Amino acid sequence: MANVLNILLKNTALCPLKHAVKPQLVSLFQTQVRTLYSESTLGIDGYKAQRLRTQNQLSNIAEKFRTKMHDYTSDDSKNMIFTEDLKNMIHLAENDDVDLIIKMMNRFNEQNKQLRFGTFVFGPVVMRMFYYLNKPDEALKCFKSENLKGFFDQLITYQLLMDLMYNNQRYQDILDLFEDIRERQIESTQFPRNIIVLTLAACYKLNTKESWDFALNLWNKLMEAGHMPMRRAVTFCAALALKQNNPSACLEMISSAKNQNYTTVRNLKVLALTQVGRIEDVLPILKSVYNQDDSMKNQTFNVDVIELIKEQVEKLDSVEVKQEFSKIHSYLKDNHISDMTLEEQLCLEIATPPFLGNKRNNYNNTQDMRYNRFQRRNDDFTKRRPFDSKRPGLSDMQ
């Protein structure tokens, strides 16, 4: 398919343009800002719950604990930062605590290079903290820090960081991160599915020639590797092709989607066909919903897509096509036209993670699953602390 796409992009004569749509079709895709992955999908709701538990447990000593951690991270301090300290501070974190936590992470990571005290994986929970506090600059700086090399190498951590960038419209940062993540190839995964979705979403949002070239290059690599992107990745890339006036590429990309009847796939297909002037091929797709039951109400075609098709039909000389479309439109407007625009539907929040067997894909990293099992077994962090007879514990600060 990669070769086919390249040929199509270079040879527009392959597409009939008798009634080609002007670039006004691109106006359907007005950029909107919203989150891509929901908090539950990313585990942010779990982080919030643990914050509340930790704050309740340490309510009487929180400030003393903060002061102690400042002392322990001073340049002349010989004290060690233990797993429990960092966990508690991450779940107590407010905006003013970020610098302290970064110092604690650096010291913890340095002291653990020679001896690892525990199996707790901090990357995901630290990134959830940055996400919760909306600290994209600090998150990116820590991710790239040589002092924290290996600290954030988990697939869910990558997803959290890229989604944080997406929320802050840092789309170019996402593309830069993708190259870095590919080089790391954690768990021997060259093309993590959720990372691909976020990367192509960033390309779609940027909507520049450079981002289109990036997306097309990535798409070709996916096809060459035999990787089948998730539907959301396919629709972002195909929609970008339309934005960049490449309906041929859109049609080829859409053809790889497993479910050709899915609403965004269907809408993109009819738009691409409309853009290349093949209205006669659009009508059968519009009529394909005739036998669907009422459970598909308002889930079939987007209102702005139907309006654009209507405009193009009215420009045709064919009375027969106009009459047929009028009949189809009368049927569709009763049950099968959604008030949601295509842009809104393309960028809907991903609220429920895909299931792989009985495991949720938002914890598709074995280390992150181990972290969550560990966290459930140890909700009360103050009950256990490393043995250190010279050092006061949390209970000693009361």
Automatic annotation (TrEMBL):
Protein name listed in UniProt = Pentatricopeptide repeat-containing protein 2, mitochondrial-like
Please list the residue ranges that the record marks as compositionally biased, kind Basic and acidic residues: 376-398
The beginning of the lineage is: Eukaryota, Metazoa, Ecdysozoa, Arthropoda, Hexapoda
Q: Which organism is it from?
A: Nicrophorus vespilloides (Boreal carrion beetle)
Q: Which parts of this chain are annotated as the region Disordered?
A: 375-398
Gene transcribed to yield this protein:
LOC108562877
